Amino acid sequence: MLGLLSALVLALGAGVHPDSQSSSRLTVTEQGAGLELSMQALSLIECLELDVDGDRRLSESELERGRLAIGQYLDARYQIDPTGTRNPWTLELVEGAQTGYQLVQAMTTFSIASECEELNVRCRLFLEQNPLHRDVATIVWRGEEPAVFLFGEGVELWNFRSASARRGGVLASYFRLGVEHILGGWDHLAFLLALLVAARGLRSLLAVVTAFTAAHSITLALAALEVVRVPGRLVELAIALSIAYVAAEVLLVRRPGARWIEAFLFGLIHGLGFAGFLGESLVLEPLKVTALAGFNLGVEAGQLAVVGALALLVTRVPGDRSYRERRDEWLVPRWLRGALAALVLCAGLYWFLERAGWLPWESA
Fold first, then answer.
1. What is the mean pLDDT of residues 118-145?
2. Are strands 21-28 and 134-141 parallel, antiparallel or unpaired?
3. pTM
């Protein structure tokens, strides 16, 4: 704040207008690149000796007389690397309908190597006279979504990377985030444990986990992309209840059966929980679909690692797995099944009471 005030004092002392701003747009295609600058004529007048009659406006003749100086100034103060040689600037005077300022539109073209995926854009337009100048820059890169950047407040350099260059890194970083989230999410791990305890065999477990994965992938995408919105507190309460329900069913239902329908329905709820965690990270991420895919793959990898390790472990635990008529078997031995289900049930009920604010020490 102190720096901005100092800059304002310097600008006013230099006799320049305080709301100097411009916009720039770089459009890159397979055939080449075009740069368009829209700037206030008054900003140019304050930096270059263009206003012959002193009326603080540019006439067509004054613009034509200063064409070479303006081009050299723009080349020196708005630099893009790496690019080929720029063609001469074309200049046009425009009356600003909204701001009332007279504008100068400048355009040039140049080549960019086809293998290029990164650019360094440096903008120092008018800063030598007006340190408060701002430039809103936009890059449209070979059909990708436009990227926007603000030059000013001491920021002169934009290290731009195309979406295709960033995609691999974004996918990897969100994949890691998904793995970390599932491994650190005790409620989701408890639900997976409940599904494991309820399974009657490895094939049944695979069907249940697949249904759970498909379901939460759907709601994760819909909620993260803001197609569906559900209050986070309701989602967290529903997740806790889903954990308690599956565990209670294991204790009360004595016959092993397919749980994939329940896994799918509860998976829809858990997907909303994943999206609540991911939502803030996606706000400023232009590659939302890539980030979402990476996060989802990370969650699935974490789930498979946990379920696979637990399944391998429990299949080696000794104990009676048979059902009463011995026509089917549980995946987990009888003695361990009851203990784990009771533990998960208590955890689910505790999380529900905690999230509802009904614990005695929470309300005290």
1. 94
2. parallel
3. 0.65
Determine how many CB atoms are found less than 10 A away from the CB of residue 140. 16
To the nearest 10 degrees (0 to 180), the angle between helices 260-282 and 163-184 is 130
Amino acid residing at 312: L
Side-chain-facing half-sphere of 74: CA atoms under 13 Å: 27
- Token representation of residue 151: 């030059």
Alpha carbon separation from 153 to 122, 127, 205 (Å, rounded): 14, 10, 57
User: Which DSSP string corresponds to 278-320?
Assistant: HHHHHTT-S-HHHHHHHHHHHHHHHHHHHHHHHHHHHTTS-S-
Q: Are 25 and 141 in contact (CB under 8 A)?
A: no
> Is the model more confident about 24 or about 232?
24
Count of CB atoms situated within 10 Å of the CB of 49:
8
* pLDDT tens, position by position, 176-196: 999 998 998 899 899 999 999
Other beta carbons within 10 angstroms of residue 63's beta carbon come to 17
Question: Which amino acid is located at 320 in the chain?
Answer: D
Cβ atoms of 294 and 281 closer than 8 Å: no
Whether 120 contacts 81, CB under 8 Å: yes
Break the chain into its structural domains and give their ranges.
13-161, 166-357
Joined tokens for residue 290: 């890539």
Q: What is the DSSP string of 39-74?
A: EEHHHHHHHSS--SSSSSS--HHHHHHTHHHHHHHH
Using left for φ > 0, alpha for ψ between -120 and 50, and beta otherwise, residue 143 falls in: left
Q: Is 280 exposed, middle or buried (0-12, 13-18, 19+ CB in 10 A)?
A: exposed
CB atoms within 10 A of CB 304: 13
Q: Walk across the sheet containing 33-40 and list its strands.
A: 90-95, 102-110, 33-40, 21-28, 134-141, 147-151
Burial class of 267 by CB neighbour count within 10 A (0 to 12, 13 to 18, 19+): buried
DSSP state of 322: B
Distance CA(198)–CA(262), nearest Å, equals: 11
- The C-alpha atoms of residue 250 and residue 208 are separated, in whole angstroms, by 14
